[in-house]
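Side project, low priority. Logging it here so it doesn't get lost.
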Amino acid sequence: MKIPRFHLAFPVHDLELARKFYINVLGCSLGRESKKWIDFNLFGHQVVAHLSPKDCNLPQTNSVDRIQVPARHFGIILPWDEWEQLLETIEHSDLRFLIEPQIRFKKKKGEQGTFFIQDPSGNALEFKSFKEDKMVFEKN
C-alpha cells in the first residue's frame, strides 16, 4: 500500500544542534534550508525545523497504559527489525530515553514496541513498531 507523505513543522532553539541530531542520530537526509529553517527527510516524510526559541516548551503529559506520555510528540512507526536497529543506535549513543523502550498494551489489541527521545530543543519523538501492521488502527 502506498502511503502519502506527511509534512510537519516544529520549533527549535538552535538550527545547528537540530541539524546534527536529525542527520547524525536519526539518519535523516538534508533538504532545503535557510537561515530560519531546515527540511529533513525523516523516513520519507518531510519534517522542518523552524528557528523559534520562544515556542520550545516542554509538553504536558497524558497517561497512556500507566505511563506519562508527552501530549505533543511526533515520530515514526517502523517495521519491527528497523525499530530494533534504531533502538540499538540510540542505546549506543549519548542520548537518554525520555521514556524507556517497552512493550505497551501487552497481549492486547495494539500491542507495540515503543520508546521516546527528545531532540536538543525538547521536542518529544516516539518510535514504535507493531508485530502486525493491521494493529496500527485496531480498536480495543
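Brief comment: The two ends are 24 Å apart (CA to CA).
Revisit when time allows.
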